[in-house]
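User: Design a sequence. Structure:
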């Protein structure tokens, strides 16, 4: 739940990044945030993560006000943020280890996620031995294993090539269908948002305000994840409408 959030960065000059942003994210929904570059998407995500303070307003997760970072919110960034000196298994086990989960139990959990992320055989590999897509899968597993209430993702696939990116999108949807989670996903990419999201929140140009909320499920069939889905006329129409809405904002910059 995001209530009347304002954020102004004060420095040499004041920058109003967010202005009166309010919307709620439903349990287990996949919500994408789109908006022109610099409109405050990352700022909003960082505020929800507790990494950035808001100027005024309130963020509630499961009814509790966010005061700082917490295990109820798992963050996945564009840069994979893995420990380079730890293996895949050790990276994935890190959260449970920190929480004091006994070795046998956390190993079993980690192996379960390694399997579902298609990382079997790479348990003892180090991040530098993995492809970008694989690193991002480790990062996703590392967050999922902590069972957070909300997954926060800031352009997690932006550094990947187009093919790996589409594969990762499919995989993320499969993982999400399997384990569910409330996902707050920031992206620049309209096609990505249309493909992944239950709903898309479009922000205005800076300072970001909610411009429009698009209920993707009401315009696209739930089987859109297949190749037919993304070639459908509805999918194209949705992308065009969203693009027109964002283009309007870019013109004001
Ligand atoms: N730490 C900071 N100090 C000062 N200004 C900041 C800081 N972080 C972000 N800003 C400003 O706030 C505005 C919003 O930035 P933010 O990174 O949230 O945008 P964004 O929507 O994520 O952009 P992009 O799509 O390019 O990633 C920008 O004008 C930026 O310059
Ligand atoms: Mg950003």
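Assistant: Done.
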């Amino acid at each position: 739940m995001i209530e009347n959030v304002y954020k102004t960065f004060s420095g040499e000059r004041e920058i109003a990044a967010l202005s009166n942003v309010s919307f709620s994210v439903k349990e287990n929904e996949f919500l994408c945030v789109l908006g022109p570059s610099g409109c405050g998407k990352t700022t909003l995500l960082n505020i929800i993560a507790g990494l950035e303070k808001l100027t005024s307003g309130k963020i509630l997760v499961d009814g509790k006000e966010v005061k700082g970072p917490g295990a109820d919110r798992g963050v996945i960034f564009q840069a994979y943020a893995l420990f380079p000196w730890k293996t895949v298994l050790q990276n994935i086990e890190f959260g449970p280890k920190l929480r004091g989960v006994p070795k046998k139990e956390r190993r079993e959990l980690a192996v379960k996620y390694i399997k579902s992320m298609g990382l079997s055989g790479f348990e003892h590999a180090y991040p530098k031995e993995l492809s970008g897509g694989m690193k991002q899968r480790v990062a996703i597993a590392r967050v999922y294993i902590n069972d957070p209430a909300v997954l926060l993702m800031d352009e997690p696939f932006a550094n990947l090539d187009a093919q790996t990116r589409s594969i990762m999108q499919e995989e993320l949807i499969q993982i999400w269908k399997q384990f569910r989670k409330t996902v707050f996903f920031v992206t620049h990419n309209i096609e990505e948002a249309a493909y992944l999201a239950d709903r898309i929140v479009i922000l205005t140009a800076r300072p970001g305000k909610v411009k429009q909320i698009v209920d993707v499920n009401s315009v696209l069939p739930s089987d859109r994840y297949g190749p037919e889905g993304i070639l459908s006329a509805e999918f194209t129409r949705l992308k065009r409408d969203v693009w027109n809405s964002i283009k309007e904002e870019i013109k004001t910059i």
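Residues 41-42 surround magnesium ion (ligand 2) (CB under 6 Å). The mean pLDDT is 91.
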